[in-house]
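seq:
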Amino acid sequence: MKQYHNHSFPLLWIALLLVGSFSGLAQEDEVEVLPSESEYKEPVSKVWFNTYGNIRISKRLFWDAQTHFRFEETGSTPFIGQIAQIYNRHAIGYIYSKKFNVTLGGVVRVNFNTDPTSPDRNVVPEWRIWHQYQFAMPLATTMIYHRIRIEHRWTQGFADNSEYIFRNRWRYMFRMKVPLNSHKFQPKTIYVSPEAELIMQSGKAVVASPMEDLRLTTTLGYIVTPRLTFAAGLMYSQGQQLENGGIYKQSWTMRFHMYFSPDFRRVKNKLPEIHLDD
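struct:
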C-alpha cells in the first residue's frame, strides 16, 4: 500500500501541470467564433496498420519505435480507401518502476491529400515533439492503464505556400487489459482490451474547437511469444473540426497491431511488467 501512495504523487503533479497549462493557453485566445448550429458529418471508414517496438537498452531505458500506416476511404475507393498518413514515432523511455514509465521523443508524420478533386499538393509533412506518462494498476487478473500524452505539433495545409500552425494536444487514455483464457498474461493468452481516449487541443488557431477527438475502442489480442503480440480492434471516434467548432467529424476505424519487444541484454526472457503499447 505504501508503494501505491508513492506513485500517486507523480500523477497528481502531472494533472495539476496539465490543468494549469491548458487554462493559461485558453486565456490567450479570448475571441470565439460561434457556429450557427451544430452539424455531424457522415462517418468515414479507415484502416490502420500499426507496429510498436519496445527495444530494451538497459535496465531502465528502452527505445520506443512505432510505425503506422493509415488508410482512409475516398469517393472512388470505399472502406480501406487510400493511404492518408504514415507515422514514424520514436522516443526514449525510462522505466521508473513496474507501475510507472515516462517517454520523450519526436514524430514525423507524412500526410497525403485524400481529395481526388483537390488542385493542391498531394503530400505535406507534419512535425511533433511528444512526452508521455503511463501508470499501470493491477486488479486481480486485469491490468488497468492511465496514460497521459502531451504533443507539440506543427501542421501545414495542402495549399501551396501554407504556413505552419502550432498546436498542443492534451491526451488522456483509460485502458483495461483482461485475459480471457488464462489467469495471467503469457504465451497463447487471448485478451480483450477496451479503452477510451480524450484528445483536447489548444493554440492560437484553436478558437471554438478544443475537443479534437474522442476515441472509443475495443481490441482483441493474442500473445504469441513473450516478445511478440498481435491484436485487432474497432474504434469509433468523433471530434470538432478545427475551422468550425460546430462541425463534428466521425469515423469508424479498423485497427491492426503488432507488438514486438526484443531484448538483447543477457537477462531471462520474460514478458515486460508493463505493456508499453500505443
